[in-house]
Amino acid sequence: MTATEFSTDLGVDPDLIAMMDGVFAEHRRTREQTGPVVGDAALWQRLDGLGLLRLTGAQESGGSGAGWPQAAELLAAAVRHGIRIPVAEHDLLACWLLETAGLPGDAAARTVCVVDGAGTARRVPWASAVDRVVVVWRDGADYRLADLDVDDRRVQISRGVNLIGEPRDDIGVETAALTGAPVAPAAVHTLGLKSALVRSVQVCAAMDAALALVVEYTSQRLQFGRPVSKFQAVQHMVADIAAEAALARAATEAALAAAVASEWAPDKLDKLEFLVAAARSCTGHAASTVTRNAHQAVGAIGTTREHRLPEFTRAALAWRSEFGSVRSWDARLTDAALAAGPAGLWSLIAD
To answer: H-helix or E-strand containing 170?
Structure first.
């Protein structure tokens, strides 16, 4: 499967994209893996050596100084090759939040969670598979955070998994026993939007990969002496897949472009929330159409372990419900549009 640039208008170096794609392709090939690769210490070390583990971190703190367009390409490359590791949770979320609070980060694998008043968080990505967890809790009108080892006695982890076997664990933290560092409420709000956009990028990459498989299969599979792709009903299904995937990608790239342009500035978060909500709504609904039509077009072989289609369709369905359900993002999008009113809605969409 060839690489597809995720953010073609955001100036990502094609050589960098090819390098990322090659790293993941080689890793999967050398492991002779028939299914998705979930977590791998050797790959983590290699990404660190290539400067991809803290791709968006500031150079003065040991990062590579790149941005979200490059990170989106890294996430998309991992999805294409079925490599599932917490690189987004580590770089774009946990280590970014530490950097925001003026705390150091390193190559130790991290995830992040915001706990409730009882010190609990549900379905935290990768908590049982990482080295450290950045815990955020409310402290009056503000927030505090602590970077904790997962073996810390103040942290309790109950293991769980999502639809594709990635760790999604419940966490309990004794926040009363922590001091922590202050973190601004705007940063916590931004963390939620960044988390949501990460999943939108991943769902888009999964749907693009599913589309590529469907086009390949229907072009090669013969029925009644001609390729399946020549049948009008199949053409309609494939066209719907392509249209829904393109709409989701366009909405996600719009949110990504706005985030890059604004540098996630606190005074731009209302606009970003609208765009992220639109991206999440589009990707969530598209995942249903893409999954249904892809499996109809490919047929029974697409449900087997030997075929890669479920690797992407199941991932799209799993990721679309994380960091907010499709319904919740539909509601946030509607609320933002109503709040903007007739005079302000166009500026949310077009500016």
So the answer is: strand 168-173
**144 DSSP β-pair partners:** 137, 182
Q: Are 84 and 99 contacting, i.e. CB atoms less than 8 angstroms apart?
A: no
* Residue 264 to residue 242: CA distance in whole angstroms: 30
Which residue from 16, 31, 152 is spatially nearest to 73, judged by alpha carbons? 16
SS3 of residue 299 by DSSP: coil
Superfamily of domain 105-183: Butyryl-CoA Dehydrogenase, subunit A, domain 2 (2.40.110.10)
CA-to-CA dists, residue 349 to 69, 183, 278, 280, 282, angstroms:
21, 31, 10, 15, 14
What is the per-residue pLDDT across 299-316, written as a single tens digit (0 to 9) for each? Answer: 988 888 889 999 999 999
Provide the 10 A C-beta neighbour count for residue 26: 13
Q: CA-based Rg of the chain, rounded to a whole angstrom? A: 20
Residue 93 carries which DSSP code?
I
Does residue 146 contact residue 181 with C-beta atoms inside 8 Å? yes
CA 275 to the chain's CA centroid:
16
Burial classification of residue 30, based on how many CB atoms lie within 10 Å of its CB (0-12 exposed, 13-18 middle, 19 or more buried): exposed
Q: Name the DSSP class of 85.
A: -
CATH homologous superfamily, domain 186-348: Butyryl-CoA Dehydrogenase, subunit A, domain 3 (1.20.140.10)
> How far apart are the C-alpha atoms of 191 and 186, rounded to whole Å?
9
Which own/partner contact pairs does 323-331 have at CB distance under 8 Å and 24+ positions apart? 323/192, 323/195, 323/196, 323/198, 323/199, 324/196, 324/280, 325/284, 326/280, 326/281, 326/284, 326/285, 329/196, 329/277, 329/280, 329/281, 329/284, 330/281, 330/284
pLDDT average, residue stretch 9-14: 80
Q: pLDDT for 17-30, tens place per residue? A: 999 999 999 988 88
